[in-house]
Amino acid sequence: MSESKTQYIEKKTALVIGGSIAGMLAARVLSDFFEEVIIIEKDPKNTKGQIRKGIPQGAQGHVLLKSGEEILEEFFPGLTDEMIKEGSVPADFANDLAWYHHGGWKIKYDSGLSIIQQSRPFLEGHIRKRMDRIDNIHTLYNTKVKGLLTDGSRVTGIEAETADEVIELSADLTVETSGASSLAVQWLKKLGFAAPEKTEIKVNLFYANRIYQKLSPIQREWKSLLVYPNPPAQVCGGGISPTVDNQWMVTLLGYGFSSPPADNDAFLEFAKNLEQPHVYEAIKDGEPVTDTEVYRFPALRRFHFEKLKSFPKGLIVMGDAFCRIDPVFAQGMSIAAKEAKALQEMFKAAGALEADPKVYHQKISKIVDIPWFIALTEDFRFSKTKGNKPIGLPLLQWYVKKVVLACSHDSYIYGRFMKVLHLQAHPIYLITPRVLKGIFRFSDRF
Ligand SMILES: Cc1cc2nc3c(=O)[nH]c(=O)nc-3n(C[C@H](O)[C@H](O)[C@H](O)COP(=O)(O)OP(=O)(O)OC[C@H]3O[C@@H](n4cnc5c(N)ncnc54)[C@H](O)[C@@H]3O)c2cc1C
Fold first, then answer.
1. Which pLDDT belongs to residue 444?
2. pLDDT digits over 261-274, tens only?
3. Which of 49-58, 192-201, 227-236, 375-384 is predicted least confidently?
4. Which residues line ligand 1 (CB under 6 A)?
5. pLDDT at 442
6. Residue 95 to residue 223: CA distance in whole angstroms
7. In terms of pTM, does the model score above 0.70?
């Protein structure tokens, strides 16, 4: 570090810490309300769609839920078609996906709920390309935020370091989206602000991933496959989905598991021991193009910024920095999109400079409540999950399992289940006379 330099920026500047999904979507919204938006990203610019250091989960399969896709399309019109043209694989969620869930295969039918499938770097790269076209958004790459600046009552910017200098940037609003490794709580404490309460649910989940150029030459009745663990007896699962470049993303996962498959032989062996043989059959004579990549996810984690009595103006926390959910439910990117949409709505109603972080954190806490509750209902089926259980959990788990099993034969119920899963509808959507009739009609089968 050679010197410390302060760079004062004109009024109406917003800073975004971290240039991943939550950061880019926040910046997209901010660009409509601020003269200048600066994203500070510790990684170099990713021009070739590689997996980058700041996103260690980037090699693992990332499903974009419909609610997230819709917001992306609203923020960047034409993005979905553009991605399909360049390699994303469209699919009907019910027709093209063979899904083994709690001991039953879901019914297949033309649901009209289409999704696009691609790798995480491909998705990020396409959003990045659109961001690069927005004149008042600039990104400082290779720049790592080290702390926040304050005037005593509000956050007024950040301190960051590049390869050869320390810089200070001031701004009217700073949005913290540095993800799972966020140091926001420590930064706030250092400035004398109170730390929020934290809720953690320990799941000790692992993901192991390999990309295949070709699957085994077998007859397949699916385009994507998901064998969800069948807890409490079976804690492991796996899935296969098409991805860009005509390749296949193969993912294995396990809860409360201390020894994930560490090499390619172990990967195959692990697939062989799943409750259903489909994943193994599809890869045993396939052609992998990558080695096994393991990612460990110890716990779901939520900081309750919304409960703090006093929180400095000028700072907003969102994305995984706010709440990190079990990735098996594929919700993280769509939650970030919903949070960005909530930011837009708040700015429209209250004005960008007047917007109260406390009100925003309360709003996004409500957004997070639903996926959090969905994840916990499932995660506590695994005996090694540790943490505070939601009230009424046994009843919830009993009901959800009935719904899940009814999805094997009732497309109406599956349709409703998918809407909840894709964060397009509240879970209450699964409690209607028609759903109740459907789940009890066949309940003697299960
Ligand atoms: C194994 C796994 C699988 C997943 N699968 C799915 C899925 O199927 N679907 C889904 O929707 N979500 C999935 N997720 C969740 C998803 O990855 C995140 O929710 C999503 O990336 C949004 O995160 P974010 O933008 O808040 O943070 P991140 O994506 O983690 O990005 C944080 C950014 O901040 C930067 N950064 C960090 N510290 C600093 C600093 N000090 N200064 C500057 N920059 C910094 C990083 O380089 C990075 O660019 C999965 C997660 C995991 C772990």
1. 52
2. 989 999 999 999 99
3. 49-58
4. 17-23, 40-43, 54-55, 57, 60-63, 144-145, 177-181, 207, 295, 297, 319-321, 327, 330-334, 336
5. 65
6. 9
7. yes
Pocket test for ligand 1, best of 15, 42, 118, 175 (most atoms within 8 A of CB): 42
Question: What is the rounded distance in angstroms from the CA atom of residue 61 to the CA atom of residue 222?
Answer: 17
Residues 274 and 316: their CA atoms lie apart, in Å, by 43
Taking 80 as the threshold, does the pLDDT of residue 47 lie above it?
no
Domains, the chain, ordered by start: 4-64+124-197+304-377 (3.50.50.60), 202-298 (3.30.70), 393-445 (no CATH)
Under DSSP, the state recorded for 197 is P
- In angstroms, the CA 181 to CA 139 distance is 20
Hunting for tokens 């602000």 — which residue is that?
193
Give the nearest ligand 1 atom to 68 CA: 11
Q: Which helix (H) or strand (E) holds 317?
A: strand 315-317
DSSP for 130-159 reads HHTT-TTEEEE-S-EEEEEEESSSBEEEEE
pLDDT tens-digit profile of 98-122? Answer: 999 999 999 999 999 999 999 999 9
